[in-house]
What we know:
Blueprint: H1 7-21, E1 30-35, E2 40-46, E3 51-57, H2 72-88, E4 95-97, H3 106-116
Helix pairs in contact: 2-3
Amino acid sequence: MINKASKKETRYGKHKRIRKKISGTPDKPRLCVFKSSKNIYAQLIDDENGITLATASTLESDLQEFRGNISVEAAKRVGDSIAEKAKSKGVTKIVFDRNGYIYHGRIAALADAAREKGLEF
């Protein structure tokens, strides 16, 4: 009998392969995206120093209307928020880490919103 991997295990395997190739630096941090069943999160991470520079999610007070609803519009607002925080820290160039998710729908909407606000991938 073949033991088929779950969606979570498959995504985690993809994430491990992606992380072998990309890493964040102080000049070009990694934008890591995670989505749960109810919220979407984005972090700017400097892997060399092991610190998180900025975070944004639907749990923030200015995005309360999207709590528990990870629609494409919510992902766009999180992308806008993380881009504004990155700009305030002086970051304009980033490396995008889709965290093993398919680049489609909410993940693509978050990335496109961040690009529109001035972040370069």
